């Protein structure tokens, strides 16, 4: 009987050992997988996908911002404008021009995020903030120019809701809008407002991408934050506020240029003088809805981007070797 007790104690000890071994192995595996996620890098097209996803959520705010910016006289609040649109045209009117918004993100944001991400990975971690800011500016310029046609159609489709029925352009979708502009106004018209759109995209990309990386790095090195949702949220919120402040005057000029009828303005300076009639604050018209829209859009874009990176990104060859 004594030998039976000893035998059962040995079996129990062996079983406990293997249970602890399995728990330790699982914990080590989870930790390794977590480290792998943090080391993953984004593919060049992740930024465009993340921005398109964010646009689906923030499009109504973008539409209201455009409507506020293009009105020259009278004052109407964001809530009043929202109520007016919903009462007169229904809730779905807030998503007018969504196809153009998605097309814009898939051209404009894919270009700027792609150039920035590839360039940043090529430059390495020692590039510093100035190098990243210059890279972001160049990426923004390229993205702003490439995305101008879709951006113009997006502005026009959104602005249709405030025009009388006989003055509306009534584009069926983004592609229809592009072809109609080409047929009715010529190829060059597709790039109307390209100068202001490109300038705005430069400051937007610097404010969003380079400042996001800067704030995220500061939070991670502080020791109080990890590479998690809280850090991504705080970094993107700060980047959104900076980007809004940098780009609002150019955003107002770009919106007016793209929504103008042929021959209405004689260049950018004519638009500047026209806007200046409202005083200095005329260049910041629609600032609150711009921030309300850009803040959530920036947050959602980077949250989606980080999730894509951590779950579907790739490891550098040396990182793969190190984890094996």
UniProtKB/TrEMBL annotation:
<feature type="repeat" description="Solcar">
    <location>
        <begin position="38"/>
        <end position="122"/>
    </location>
</feature>
<dbReference type="InterPro" id="IPR050391">
    <property type="entry name" value="Mito_Metabolite_Transporter"/>
</dbReference>
<keyword id="KW-0472">Membrane</keyword>
<feature type="repeat" description="Solcar">
    <location>
        <begin position="127"/>
        <end position="218"/>
    </location>
</feature>
<keyword id="KW-0812">Transmembrane</keyword>
<dbReference type="Pfam" id="PF00153">
    <property type="entry name" value="Mito_carr"/>
</dbReference>
<comment type="similarity">
    <text>Belongs to the mitochondrial carrier (TC 2.A.29) family.</text>
</comment>
<dbReference type="InterPro" id="IPR018108">
    <property type="entry name" value="MCP_transmembrane"/>
</dbReference>
<feature type="repeat" description="Solcar">
    <location>
        <begin position="227"/>
        <end position="311"/>
    </location>
</feature>
<keyword id="KW-1133">Transmembrane helix</keyword>
<dbReference type="InterPro" id="IPR023395">
    <property type="entry name" value="MCP_dom_sf"/>
</dbReference>
<dbReference type="GO" id="GO:0016020">
    <property type="term" value="C:membrane"/>
</dbReference>
<keyword id="KW-0813">Transport</keyword>
<keyword id="KW-0677">Repeat</keyword>
<protein>
    <recommendedName>
        <fullName>Mitochondrial dicarboxylate carrier</fullName>
    </recommendedName>
</protein>
């Amino acid at each position: 009987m004594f030998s039976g007790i000893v035998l059962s104690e040995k079996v129990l000890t062996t079983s406990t050992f293997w249970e602890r071994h399995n728990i330790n192995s699982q914990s080590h595996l989870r930790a390794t997988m977590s480290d792998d996620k943090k080391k993953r890098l984004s593919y060049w097209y992740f930024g465009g996908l993340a921005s398109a996803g964010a646009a689906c959520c923030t499009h109504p705010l973008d539409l209201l911002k455009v409507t506020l910016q293009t009105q020259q006289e009278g004052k109407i609040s964001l809530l009043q404008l929202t109520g007016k649109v919903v009462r007169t045209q229904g809730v779905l009117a807030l998503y007018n021009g969504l196809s153009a918004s998605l097309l814009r993100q898939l051209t404009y944001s894919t270009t700027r995020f792609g150039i920035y991400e590839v360039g940043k990975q090529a430059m390495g971690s020692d590039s510093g903030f100035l190098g990243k800011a210059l890279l972001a500016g160049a990426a923004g310029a390229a993205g702003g120019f490439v995305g101008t046609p879709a951006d113009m159609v997006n502005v026009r489709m959104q602005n249709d809701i405030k025009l009388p029925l006989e003055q509306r352009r009534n584009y069926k979708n983004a592609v229809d809008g592009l072809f109609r502009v080409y047929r009715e106004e010529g190829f060059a018209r597709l790039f109307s407002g390209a100068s202001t759109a490109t300038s705005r995209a430069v400051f937007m990309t610097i404010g969003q991408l380079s400042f996001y990386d800067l704030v995220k790095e500061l939070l991670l090195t502080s020791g109080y934050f990890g590479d998690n949702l809280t850090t991504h949220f705080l970094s993107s919120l700060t980047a959104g506020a900076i980007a809004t402040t940098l780009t609002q005057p150019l955003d107002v000029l770009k919106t007016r240029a793209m929504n103008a009828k042929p021959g209405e303005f004689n260049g950018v300076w004519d638009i500047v003088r026209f806007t200046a009639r409202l005083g200095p604050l005329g260049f910041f018209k629609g600032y609150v809805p711009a921030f309300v829209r850009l803040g959530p859009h920036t947050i959602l874009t980077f949250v989606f981007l980080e999730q894509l990176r951590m779950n579907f990104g790739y490891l550098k060859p040396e990182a793969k070797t190190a984890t094996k």
